Amino acid sequence: MKLRCALLALVLAPAWFAQDATAPKPIDRQGLMEAVRIGGLKPEELIGIIRDIGVDFRIQPEDEKQLAKLGADKRLIEAVRANYRGETAPPPPPIELPEGPPLTREKVILILQAGVDPQVLIDLIKLRGAAFAVDRETAAEIIAAGGNKLVVGAAVVNQRDAEPKATPAPALAPRGVAPAPHAPKPIRVPGAEQARRLIRQTPPEYPVLAARMNLSGKVLLDIRIDASGEVTDVKVVSGHSMLSAAAVSAVRTWAYEPALVNGVPVEVLTDVEVTFSLKK
Fold this sequence. Notes:
Elements: H1 2-11, H2 29-38, H3 43-53, H4 61-70, H5 74-82, H6 105-113, H7 118-128, H8 136-144, H9 149-157, E1 187-188, H10 191-195, E2 198-200, H11 208-212, E3 217-225, E4 231-238, H12 241-251, E5 255-256, E6 259-261, E7 264-266, E8 268-276
Parallel strand pairs: 1-8
Antiparallel strand pairs: 2-5, 3-4, 3-8, 6-7
């Protein structure tokens, strides 16, 4: 018990605070302009929504001019000015991970057995590295202790020596021989094939304003996945501007099984299609 408490104190410096993920987000500037331009809601309805959930920006003179140009009246502009809710509670402080030597297999197992969130352990491995080789037996031990394939992938990608060694002088390559690449290049995988590797898929939050206006459709994204299976970059290829931000926010939290080329984890480039539908 003392060992578990010590490990938790070591890894989990400040704790995360819970947040209400179900509360609708305030309307952003782009969403409001789009709603006024489309005209899918009566002014009274749009003002009511603004009063209910607010806006996340302070209205500026140029915003007033743009809204007036799109046909908004003074009541709507006053509602935007009076319902600014951008200053919310500050986000939870990030967990301060301790510096130190690379983690041994035994330490990884003990941290997992202490109940530490696997994502925290992944971040710790990325920071400090793993001082052990990962084979089938070690991977099975990590998963049995409460880890997952992402923890295994992080240990594979971040293997380091337990003790730092002096850096040898770089050897000169023979003439006419190209130096070996340091890391495999990313591979392009079709979206349907990559979707079969999904292990964590958070559904997108339907934007309140888009739902009120009965907006639906598909957002096509181009994403980059690192060697451990985490999404590191998301770009919008096509889709409605009032839906694309929600799609990007959701896909950034997705995770995949690490892709292997000749047994080595590699980065993946692929496409993702996120569908927004109001049909029950």
